[in-house]
Amino acid sequence: YWVQKGFNVMHPIGWDAFGLPAENAAIKRGENPRNWTYENIAIQKASMRRFACSFDWDRVLNTCDPEYYKWNQWLFLELYKKGLAYRKDSAVNWCPDCQTVLANEQVVAGLCERCDTPVTKKKLNQWYFKITNYADRLLEDMEQLEGKWPEKVLLMQRNWIGRSEGAEVRFSTEAGPLTVYTTRPDTLWGATFCVIAPEHPLLPALNKNPAVEAYLQSVRNRADLDRAAAKEKTGVFTGSYATNPVNGEQIPIWVADYVLMSYGTGAIMAVPGHDERDYAFAQAFQLPIKRVVEGGALPFPEEGISVDSGLISGLPTPKAKASVIDFLEENG
């Protein structure tokens, strides 16, 4: 179209041909992955040329060429030098047959999409980039795109960046402090239980219920996407309690698969009166539900006026949040 409009059009092509899938395919065939990969590229290139695709065949790259991936290595080293690359342990989807990590999208009904082997969760030490360092700048710069990009695309970008503002709050337990992250510290007086992820490191020390181990076996290999999207709430009481730091109440600690180690601290304070997922969980297991924000029918997740909330009762949500955070900081 643009050529016929009189424009010069550059249409390069590249093969994303570097990684474990190529290695695994070569291992199965007893071949060198380099030979296997380049032979496949040659076949595909010949086919595309016969189709008369309008690629510029003088501008071809393969990601498995050293001339290409040396720049990936250079870029990684630059990020590392600037403190933007770091390592940490994290639970990953692991295929024991392919001996590789899988993205959530590569796990289909609990099985590896390539070989149908049941996928397990495995803790591995991995490299990460500190993209969160740029969250504020990215969000601010997106204002320049208002009216130029579709609003739904901007919303998707904001959700992907995923900045949230709140507080990390420590609940004391007999196994040590249980840290939860919350965007609504003003609802602490409405917390009637805590929930931790099945992978939480404190769970072995907190567990006093034999039923927990059977539950862990049933949920251990479910993908995070499936767990987050599941409508039916499942969980087991650990037999341990946490102390709410604002009122000293002892509240039960449950383990449930709708809480993910990959989000926040892997533990939540459950406020069923003001959170839809906590409300569904509380109803399923007949746990207490308290109102601590006036405004609408429960569950009421919006802002309002704090009630039955000690020092912040009568305050609107923004002021209540600030007051609670000040209180928590002052009291360690």
Characterize the structure shown.
This protein is of the alpha+beta class and 332 residues long. The protein has ten helices and 15 strands. The chain has helices spanning 20-29, 33-50, 66-81, 135-141, 151-161, 203-206, 211-219, 224-229, 276-285, 317-330; strands at 13-15, 60-62, 85-95, 100-102, 107-108, 111-112, 120-129, 167-173, 176-182, 193-196, 236-243, 250-255, 267-270, 293-294, 305-306. The strands form six sheets. A four-stranded mixed β-sheet has the order 11-12-10-13. Strand 11 (236-243) and strand 12 (250-255) form a beta hairpin. The longest helix is centred in the N-terminal third of the chain and has 18 residues, at 33-50. It is globular. The protein starts with 12 loop residues before the first strand and ends with a helix.
Task: Put the structure in a nutshell.
This protein is of the alpha+beta class. The chain is built from ten helices and 15 strands. Strand 8 (167-173) and strand 9 (176-182) form a beta hairpin.
The low-confidence runs, each spanning 5 or more residues with pLDDT under 50, are none
Which structural class best describes the helix and strand composition? alpha+beta
Count of DSSP-assigned helices: 10
Strand order of the largest sheet: 11-12-10-13
The radius of gyration over CA amounts to: 26 Å
Order of helices and strands: EHHEHEEEEEHHEEEHHHEEEHEEH
Query: Please, what is the average pLDDT?
Result: 91
The largest β sheet comes out as: 4 strands, mixed
The level of helicity is 25-40%
Overall 3D shape: globular
Number of strands: 15
Report the β-strand fraction as a percent range: 15-25%
Distance between the termini: 65 Å
